[in-house]
Amino acid sequence: MTDKPFLYVVVCAAGVAADVSKLITAAQERDWEVGVIATPTAMNGFFDAAAVETGTGRPIRSAWRRPEDPRPFPAPDAVVVAPATFNTVNKWAAGIADTLAVGTLCEASGLGVPIAVLPCVADALAAHPAYQDSVSRLRGMGVRFADPYAGEGERDGERGVFGWERALDLLRNG
Ligand SMILES: Cc1cc2nc3c(=O)[nH]c(=O)nc-3n(C[C@H](O)[C@H](O)[C@H](O)COP(=O)(O)O)c2cc1C
């Protein structure tokens, strides 16, 4: 048990997820207690699950609990989605809660819990009108989006710096 505020870190299946431990460490340094919820696809080798569980001291959640099981995490004081994929952003905006990650996001926005999003979406996908509508709909719900990040291929295959701490700044500054 701890008095620290509880942060959910929702991890989607984008290449930069491999570095999600940077966000966890930065959040802990800012005095958050952290629990990770990953999409089922993200659990399929996109990051080091064992390292994350060691770092947070808690199991990663990816599937719904059974009805008789207790809630594994406390209620969130804030939520970060990083990296946020094209797929998860669109499902969240549309209310398609077919993963624990999206279901948690839909519920957290309804409860008014602060949510910060670090998208990692290629320019070609970000140009899709459904994605633009999704971002605008979620912004209208009060969700805080960081600037776009296109991932690999930005400059001749080079990847810019993802800037994990932007999520924590967004929670602090709104
Ligand atoms: C190596 C790899 C990297 C990927 N990177 C991204 C990415 O940066 N952004 C994205 O939106 N999708 C990316 N994808 C595609 C997603 O994994 C795919 O759309 C998946 O359905 C997303 O599931 P999720 O939103 O439930 O995590 C990548 C796929 C692979 C195999």
Overview of this protein structure:
- The structure is a single chain.
- The protein is of the alpha/beta class and 174 residues long.
- It has a single domain (6-173), classed as Flavin prenyltransferase-like (Rossmann fold), CATH 3.40.50.
- It contains seven helices and five strands; from the N terminus they run E-H-E-H-E-H-H-E-H-H-E-H.
- The chain has helices at 20-29, 49-56, 86-94, 100-111, 123-126, 129-140, 166-173, and strands spanning 6-11, 33-38, 78-84, 115-119, 144-145.
- The longest helix is centred in the middle third of the chain and has 12 residues, at 100-111.
- The radius of gyration is 15 Å and the shape is globular.
- The mean pLDDT is 94.
- The structure holds flavin mononucleotide (FMN).
- Flavin mononucleotide binds at residues 12-15, 39, 41-42, 85-88, 99, 120-121, 151.
What are the defining features of this structure?
single chain, 174 residues, alpha/beta, Rossmann fold, 5-stranded parallel sheet, 7 helices, 15% strand, binds flavin mononucleotide
